[in-house]
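wait is this the right file?? whatever heres the structure
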């Protein structure tokens, strides 16, 4: 009873008008010091966290606090992130003049004290370890308590007091200043803009915090799994120059992947990291801004580091490793006929240019390696740190298909010699490092791209004389077994998704990617991109990607009749600037060969899509083809709804349909049409609203749902009919009121849990928690 009165007294004081700063907290609870919260996983406290606390944090907190874009950099997806705490520094800042010091969890600091030295404030109590102090001194507890005390207003739509924009100002107050949040923003309790966690969940978190917030260490790997890790680390760390160069290449393409061993009962994910220490010793990660920067050690060791974080859909890049894969890598990089006379250095000008660094490895080996996991490599720039934000992604259309040049044709002696001669013009913006001058640098790279395309056209004219190879045989057929041969990319304004197969209706544009283009996309947007870089670096990356997109589109256009190419390209770039038009025309005029494909219709682009689909049919992934279920057929009607209705829909909507206690999931993707996508700052001015389309897909596609709908099967036809006839915002409001699960819904968390359970059934190993930072307030 005495403890409860003390706690009540403290909370009353802290929520009053008096100002309690650091000195006041010191006098109440003693000076702050780092606490040792680690316990064994099989201890009572360790099991309590894993079984009773972590599931609540994941399902209620990590859905907003999980990655780079977590408010206040609070990442609750791992025990290390919980201990790191909060920071006012913005990770995504499109206006910073100088690059920021990186603050990457697990990489840039070794322990909690390092994070405090970097300016992070704790969310757990770091003073006197008493039950009262552990609650009163915890930002996490006070944030949850604030929501319990001030629940969401009983309205469908939250007022403007709630700011859900990605660029919103954030309240990152340490506990000594939390009384100001309580007084000035009482409705900012956690979960922000969502219903409070229930009483049982709150009491479970409270008990954990009160008893010292103990968290378990990772379990030791079982013998079978450790043997798999040992086998791969042995393969990646052999002494020969050939092995070392191959391992460097593999690492620089796989460093974002979530590696797992599918033959094992328990799925544990690993990251491929650079370490100062060899296999058999504890991993000491090498911290550099980019994966190809100077490690400043005599020897790098490539290690498999167990990732302790919760898997999030927006960053999940699963990669299966097995004996078949290790045999494939040996064939590609070790058994291949080439010699490595010396290892390349880490000078930034050469290290940022893979055509220089890995010039000794045959093009075919490198290209086949990338093609084997093409979706993974492409997803790197979608799910890596570059993905956050409209400025980063308005360089691509909302829906397009991707296919690849066959590696046999793309790795001839002529191509190898050509790329060796073009290393200067294939330089990438990462060589400017993280503080770039965009205009001067852009002019330099524009000239290099111009030179490269002219030389490429000359080579293509030589290789494809009289169109003898310029047909669908040019494309990689996935060796008859690999469904990475055809991909679909959906952009959702400020996020994106990559799927296997040709998904959705025929898109406006398509890309054909060759080795040089594939490599540059990766080293521009994944390996070479620094999310902490200055505005010049970010802008230059965006502008350079314009070149690469147009190059991929031009390769697709080359398969069309020459008389139609200019007209189609002009339609893709309606309203573009004169300078861009001149660039496009110069690019188009460089390649003179007629296609080797015979066309018989007046719509050659549609006909080409059909021919490519027929050619790649043996390897086309059909996971996202709608079945013949009654609800599927009803929802497919939405693909033909009028533009006025489409324009009212958000980018990503998830639908759950109940049928006799079973549930099916569907996605409604709204694709924004544009006259062109060359303008960095004029998104609305380039929008072709009347040309917007939607895709209806089974399962849940997209990592950031904007709208969630729940329907019983008998309600489907009415839902579709109402949606088809929407014209104004009030129509959407009425539909949402009847069928939507708004962020203010009293049972929001019940439906959130159901959504994730259904998603697990659809996604399997690809499952990760969705992110709710883009949930609409409509």
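ok assuming it is, sequence goes like this
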């Amino acid at each position: 009873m005495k403890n409860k009165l003390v706690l009540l007294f403290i909370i009353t004081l802290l929520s009053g008008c008096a100002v309690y700063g650091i000195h006041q907290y010191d006098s109440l609870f003693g000076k702050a010091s780092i606490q040792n919260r680690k316990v064994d996983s099989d201890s009572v406290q360790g099991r309590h966290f894993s079984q009773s606390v972590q599931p609540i944090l994941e399902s209620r907190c990590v859905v907003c606090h999980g990655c780079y874009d977590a408010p206040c950099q609070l990442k609750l997806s791992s025990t290390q992130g919980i201990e790191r705490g909060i920071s006012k520094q913005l990770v995504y800042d499109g206006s910073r003049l100088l690059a920021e010091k990186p603050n990457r969890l697990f990489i840039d600091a070794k322990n909690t004290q390092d994070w405090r030295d970097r300016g992070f404030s704790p969310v757990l109590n770091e003073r006197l370890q008493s039950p009262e102090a552990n609650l009163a001194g915890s930002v996490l507890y006070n944030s949850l308590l604030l929501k319990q005390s001030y629940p969401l207003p009983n309205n469908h739509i939250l007022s403007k007091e709630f700011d859900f924009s990605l660029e919103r100002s954030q309240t990152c107050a340490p506990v000594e200043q939390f009384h100001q949040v309580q007084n000035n923003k009482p409705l900012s309790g956690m979960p922000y803009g969502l219903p409070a966690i229930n009483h049982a969940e709150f009491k479970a978190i409270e008990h954990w915090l009160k008893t010292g917030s103990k968290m378990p260490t990772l379990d030791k790997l079982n013998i079978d799994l450790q043997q798999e890790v040992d086998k791969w680390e042995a393969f990646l760390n052999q002494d020969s120059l050939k092995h070392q160069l191959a391992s460097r290449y593999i690492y620089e393409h796989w460093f974002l992947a979530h590696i797992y061993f599918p033959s094992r009962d328990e799925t544990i994910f690993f990251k491929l990291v650079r370490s100062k220490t060899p296999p058999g010793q504890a991993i000491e990660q090498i911290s550099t801004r980019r994966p190809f920067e100077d490690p400043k050690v005599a020897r790098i060791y490539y290690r498999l580091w167990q990732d302790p974080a919760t898997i999030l859909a927006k960053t999940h890049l699963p990669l299966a490793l097995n004996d078949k894969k290790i045999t494939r890598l040996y064939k590609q990089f070790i058994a291949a006929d080439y010699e490595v006379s010396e290892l390349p250095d880490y000078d930034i000008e050469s290290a940022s240019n893979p055509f220089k660094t890995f010039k000794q490895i045959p093009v075919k080996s490198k290209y086949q390696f990338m093609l084997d996991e093409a979706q993974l490599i492409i997803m790197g720039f979608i799910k890596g740190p570059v993905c956050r934000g409209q400025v980063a992604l308005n360089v691509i259309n909302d829906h397009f298909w991707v296919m690849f040049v066959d590696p046999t044709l793309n790795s001839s002696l002529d191509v190898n010699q050509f790329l060796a001669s073009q290393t200067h013009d294939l330089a990438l913006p990462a060589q400017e490092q993280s503080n770039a001058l965009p205009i001067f640098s852009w002019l330099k790279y524009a000239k290099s791209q111009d030179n490269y395309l002219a030389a490429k056209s000359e080579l293509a004219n030589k290789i494809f004389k009289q169109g003898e190879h310029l047909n669908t045989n040019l494309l990689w057929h996935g060796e008859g077994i690999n469904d990475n041969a055809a991909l679909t990319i959906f952009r959702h304004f400020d996020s994106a998704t990559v799927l296997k197969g040709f998904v959705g209706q025929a898109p406006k544009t398509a890309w054909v990617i060759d080795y040089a283009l594939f490599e540059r996309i990766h080293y521009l947007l994944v390996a070479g991109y620094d999310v902490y870089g200055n505005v010049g670096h970010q802008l230059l990356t965006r502008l350079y990607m314009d070149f690469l997109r147009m190059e991929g589109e031009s390769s697709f256009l080359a398969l069309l009749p020459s008389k139609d190419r200019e007209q189609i390209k002009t339609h893709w770039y309606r309203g573009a600037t004169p300078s861009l038009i001149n660039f496009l025309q110069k690019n188009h005029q460089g390649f003179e060969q007629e296609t080797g494909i015979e066309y018989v219709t007046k719509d050659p682009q549609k006909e080409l899509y059909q021919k490519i689909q027929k050619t790649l049919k043996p390897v086309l992934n059909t996971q996202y083809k709608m079945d013949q279920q009654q609800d599927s057929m009803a929802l497919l009607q939405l693909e033909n709804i009028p533009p006025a209705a489409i324009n009212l829909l958000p980018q990503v909507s998830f639908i759950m349909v109940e049928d006799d206690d079973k549930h099916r999931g569907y996605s409604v993707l709204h694709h924004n049409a544009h006259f062109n996508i060359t303008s960095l700052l004029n998104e609305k001015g380039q929008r072709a609203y009347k040309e917007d389309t939607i895709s209806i897909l089974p399962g849940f596609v997209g990592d950031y749902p904007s709208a969630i709908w729940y329907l019983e099967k008998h309600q489907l036809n009415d839902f579709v009919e109402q949606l088809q006839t929407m014209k104004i915002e009030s129509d959407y409001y009425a539909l949402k009121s009847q069928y939507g699960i708004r962020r203010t819904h009293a049972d929001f968390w019940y439906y959130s849990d159901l959504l994730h359970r259904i998603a697990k059934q659809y996604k399997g190993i690809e499952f990760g928690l969705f992110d709710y930072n883009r949930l609409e307030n409509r």
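The chain has 29 helices and 14 strands. so i think its the right one actually
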